[in-house]
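User: Could you go from structure to sequence for me? I need the amino acid at each position, not a summary. Structure tokens:
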């Protein structure tokens, strides 16, 4: 479904060109869950932004590579065709529910604003019910009236309005406490199975990702250094960086797969 081939992304910082992603290749099959794991600055979020061509031109550029979605190269699509793909076929959940929502608009207004242009398959009420929120209350509410976990549920509901084939989840629980993280991820992957979506789960937490994904790619300094099934990575990690990530896991919070 999604194939990234030798993707190279560069950022501009104070007159210098900084490589963020270096000749990266990976793929996601229909309905597959892939975890992309690495420390801050490894380039993992840049991969998701590149898929949807959301890197501002003043900040950086996609230097080379191909990003194929259903055999169409997203990097060579015109803007109109790309807009049809964004939201409708590929949705993204951003990492901070406290800043991803507009504080002066109701939840209902914000949920309807983007996906409505692409043709919602799921109603706002149905989407909120899917994520275990009360539509009657939440649609009229402003972001400050909701908890962090509720805001993240709203973002998930917004992402599934068009029943996308691929969901990019960029650190979807980082700003939440540990117990809420578990609830949100259980919900997200319950919806993934129900809707048959492919999911790219981006995180710095290898233990968390291992519990929810079928395959993991470990990223360091803009490159994938190792990938495989969770049990394989934990049993026989080949790269020193993967070994470091496993060794740093908080054993009391996350069990090994």
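Assistant: Here is the amino acid at each position, in order:
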């Amino acid at each position: 479904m999604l194939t990234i081939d030798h993707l190279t992304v560069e950022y501009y910082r104070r007159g210098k060109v900084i490589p963020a992603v270096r000749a990266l290749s990976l793929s996601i099959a229909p309905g597959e869950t892939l975890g992309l794991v690495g420390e801050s600055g490894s380039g993992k979020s840049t991969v998701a932004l590149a898929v949807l061509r959301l890197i501002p031109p003043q900040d950086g550029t996609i230097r080379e590579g191909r990003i194929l979605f259903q055999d169409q190269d997203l990097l060579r699509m015109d803007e109109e065709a790309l807009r049809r793909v964004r939201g409708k076929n590929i949705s993204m959940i951003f990492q901070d529910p406290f800043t991803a929502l507009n504080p002066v608009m109701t939840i209902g207004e914000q949920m309807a604003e983007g996906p409505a242009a692409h043709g919602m398959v799921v109603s706002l009420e149905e989407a909120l019910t899917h994520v275990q929120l009360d539509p009657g209350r939440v649609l009229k509410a402003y972001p400050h009236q909701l908890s962090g976990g509720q805001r993240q549920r709203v973002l998930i509901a917004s992402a599934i309005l068009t029943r996308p084939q691929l969901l990019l989840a960029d650190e979807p629980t980082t700003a939440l406490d540990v117990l809420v993280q578990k609830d949100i991820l259980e919900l997200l992957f319950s919806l993934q199975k129900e809707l048959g979506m492919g999911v790219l789960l981006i995180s710095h937490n290898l233990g968390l990702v291992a519990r929810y994904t079928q395959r993991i790619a470990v990223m360091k300094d803009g490159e994938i250094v190792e990938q495989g099934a969770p049990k394989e990575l934990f049993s026989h990690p080949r790269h020193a960086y993967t070994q470091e990530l496993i060794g740093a896991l908080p054993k009391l919070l996350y069990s090994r797969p």
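One structural detail worth keeping in mind: The chain has ten helices and ten strands.
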